[in-house]
Each structure stands twice: as C-alpha cells, then as structure tokens.
Amino acid sequence: MDRRSFLQQGSLLGGSLLMFDELLAKTSWLNDKPINIGMIGCGDRGKGVLSVIKSLPQLFRIRSYCDVLDFRLDEANHLLKDDKIIKFKSHQSMLDDKDLDAVFIAVPLSAHFSIAKDAIEAGKHVYVEKTMTYSIDEAKQLVRLADQHPKQTVQVGYQYRYSPLYFKVKDMISSGFLGKVSQVDCRWDRNGTWRRAVPEPGLERQINWRMYKEFSGGLAAELLSHQIDFINWAFDTHPDEVYGTGGIDIYPDGRETFDNIQVMFRYKKEGMIGNFGATCGNARDGYLFKIKGTKGTVSLLTNTGLFYPEKEAKEALSTVDGVSGATKIVWNKDGGTPILDEPTKDGTWYALQEFYKAIKTNTMPSSNVKRGASAAICVAMANNAIYNNRPEYWKADYDI
C-alpha cells in the first residue's frame, strides 16, 4: 500500500472537520447568525473554553458568564475584556434570559446534572463538560429528559475525539485495518498534588473539589473518562465487567479521592480487555493510549498518532503502487508511521463547531447525551469497583 492510500483510509468523518473553514463560506446554515451562549463555571476549564469561543465569532456570541466565586468572575472579565457581557452569580438567573440560546457547563461534577436539567427545562441547548453526570441514575435521568426535548442539543465535552485523528482511528477499527483488537492500554499520569491555590480556608472544598468524593469522580472521571468514552464509541460497546484498585498512596493530605488508580474492563462481545490507569506520582507516560490488534497497533496522543503494523501487515503496506508512483510509507526508527500528516488543532475547536452544527441543523452530535451516559456509567462502575474493592457488572437497565 502507498502512503496516499493509507492516509485516505478513515478520513470520511474527519475530513469534513478539516475543511470547516471552506464549508463556512459555502453552506447556508453556517452563514446564519451566531449563537448567543453563556458560560456556567469560570474555573480553568470554563476560561479555556471561553478563549476558544472567542476565536470563533462567526459561530458564537458570548452573552453571559456565571460563577459562585467572585474572583472567578473577575478572571473571566479580565479574559473577555467586554463590559457588555453580563455576569451572574446564579445560573438560574442566567437561564431566565430569553435571548440566551445555549449554555456551557464547566462546574464540579456533582452539579452537572442539576444545572443541565435546569438549562434543558429552560429551553437552552447544553454543552456539558465530561464526565456527563456524577451517578448512574443521573445519567439515565438526563437521557430521558433530553428525549423529552428533541429540539434541544445536548453535547458532552469529550473534546479530543472530535478531532479528525480520532475519527480516522475509529474508521481504522471498524474497517478491520487493525485486525482483531484484544488489548487497550491507557494511562493519564502526572507528577503533582493536583491541588489549586486557595485564597482563604473556607473555599477549600469549592476550589479543590476534585479531592472530595462529595463533588468528584477523581482520576477516573477527570482524566480516564476520555479514553473510556472513545473505546465505547469506536467499538460501539461497553464493558461487561469492571475490576479496580487504588489508594491515597502519594499525597496523604486530607484528600478523599484516590491519587493512584488502576481499572480493568472486560468487553466480552469483542473479546477485549481495557486497562486504564492514572497516578499523581509519575509523569513519564503522561497521556498514553494504545489499541492493539492482530494487524497492528495505534498509539495516540491528544493531537497526533502513530500506526505500528505487525510483521505481515508491514510487508503488505510496504508495496509501492507502480502505476501511480505514490510515495511509499516511511517508517520511523521504531517501526511506526504517522496516522495524519500533521498534528490536529485543539479538540475543543472541533467540538465547538460540532455543537454549532448540531444546533443549527437539529442533528445529534457525535458525543451526544446517550454516549455521555454510557461513559458516565462506566466511570461510576470504575469508582464503585475501586472504592468498594469488588467487581462491577453491566446491568440491562444501563443500555440506553
């Protein structure tokens, strides 16, 4: 196979996103007026999304922002530099605005469901950050609520898999390009306490909410859910069995969520095992995502990826097309070749475009409420297995 053919494989979905700027000029619904949006939650993630929204003025108009902490409102105001944008301390007050079309929800996980519910019932489109909900019951309730409001978009912020890279890998899997996949290895490691500075002691739990079980799903929800969601989506599956372990092994500083975890998912239908781990005590691997099949392995970062063929597959791929004269695949020194020619943009950039398109065309986004529910259920199962030290099993009423 030549490099041209290899790069074309799996590009059907990703290509449409790569050509978005061209589509913007040619497609009628993309030339419609911008959507008025509000940001609920102005912490690091909320401000990060706002900065990307600012780069897409043809799609979105920032109408308002909201946070319960005054200094977060000040930080958002400094970022936006526009006194015409309305600020709120109550999301209910924000939702009363009839000119507001959609909201982004970037608050502690425990509040995702209640705020999303309020927004949907107020007639707003919703983009809720991952993980979609804190509990399994909330996930099921949000699906039912979204079904009752079919004209409103509900999208979940698994931004990495909106990129053309992840669409391509999904197609490589479904087309059989990797052969029979039996193992998935995922890590998202860091070396640090994961703590944020607290201006006064009374704000500890509000600012460091990720450390406390009342508010947070810990490392599984905040990091590994990205990879968990991708496997569910790419294979159209879910785990049948979940095993996990972990502990507060590095920072015994009063936190409740574990700083060192390992989870194993068994996907029986696929004959596949997924290994998902995260630690706060070593950053060497960082984001590691490997999908291993009989014909080859995909090794992914958030914006780049390499394909490593098994021996027989590499021999077949090394054949040059003598008619077209296409460039032979060039393998790097460890035997891999890039999946795309260049790194993709920030995944949020693609995810926001999908949100706009879904609203304007009343179509379901790729990371929709049902996909979000499946991932949220998996995260809750993982945490139950970790904290209760017993296996978790997928139940029939989890099928949404």
TrEMBL record:
What is the protein's species of origin?
A: Olivibacter oleidegradans
Task: Please state what the protein is called.
Answer: Gfo/Idh/MocA family protein
InterPro entries membership: Gfo/Idh/MocA-like_OxRdtase_N, Gfo/Idh/MocA_oxidrdct_glycsds, GFO_IDH_MocA-like_dom, NAD(P)-bd_dom_sf
What SUPFAM superfamilies does the entry give? Glyceraldehyde-3-phosphate dehydrogenase-like, C-terminal domain, NAD(P)-binding Rossmann-fold domains
Domain Gfo/Idh/MocA-like oxidoreductase N-terminal: residue ranges: 35-158
Upper classification of the organism: Bacteria, Pseudomonadati, Bacteroidota, Sphingobacteriia, Sphingobacteriales
- Write down a Pfam family by its short name: GFO_IDH_MocA
**Boundaries of each GFO/IDH/MocA-like oxidoreductase domain copy?**
168-298
